[in-house]
Amino acid sequence: MFFATLALFATFALAAPSVELDVRQTNNVQKPTCGVAGDANLSDCYHLYNNWPYYQDATWGATCHSGVNLEYNPACYGNCCIYTSSRTPLWEDVHTAVGHLLDCRSDSKGTVNGRVKVEGSGTVCMADRKACGDCFN
Ligand SMILES: *[C@@H]1O[C@H](CO)[C@@H](O)[C@H](O)[C@H]1NC(C)=O
Q1: C-alpha of residue 71 to centroid of ligand 1, in Å
Q2: I need a surface site. Which of 2, 32, 83, 103 has the fewest CB within 10 A?
């Protein structure tokens, strides 16, 4: 009994770190789709990510249409813009999603663009200033 418990504990302890990582990647933010719209400037996007605006400063009045749906452009810095399908996403979820979208970067070109679905907070896209419609097509 003791050894069985120990073995179970050891297995769990070894498996735990990768399980936690998987849960984070699949539950909170899914795999981004890269290259969906116009390239944003990578350093502008890093700046936006590292100086994430307050929800109260987000520009929810900036909208666009893709087909029949209305989308939002809550934040831009330089030529890097964030677009969301939801008017009321969890703002910290959007920030986390932007962090994942940075995985779409090309360090050699200094550019990035991509889109990712966030459970409960819709779709988040990061691309250039004219990308709003393209992001959701
Ligand atoms: C991005 O913006 C920075 C700062 O304005 C600029 O130095 C850089 O050349 C830009 N990169 C690209 C790929 O346009």
Answers
A1: 27
A2: 2
Pocket residue to mutate for ligand 1, from 41, 47, 111, most atoms within 8 A of Cβ? 41
Which among 39, 43, 105, 112 is the best mutation to test ligand 1's pocket, defined by most ligand atoms within 8 Å of the CB?
Answer: 43
- The separation between the first and the last C-alpha atoms of the chain, rounded to the nearest angstrom, is 58
Print burial letters for 24-41: b (CB count within 10 Å at least 16), e (below 16): eeeeebeebeeebbebbb
Do the beta carbons of residue 115 and residue 103 sit within 8 Å? no
Least confident of 13-22, 89-98, 99-108: 13-22
Position in ligand 1 atom list of the atom nearest CA 42: 1
Beta carbons of 103 and 4 less than 8 angstroms apart: no
- pLDDT tens for 2-57 read 555 444 444 444 544 444 444 444 446 689 999 999 999 999 999 999 999 999 99
**Ligand 1, residues at Cβ distance < 6 Å:** 41, 43-44, 110-111
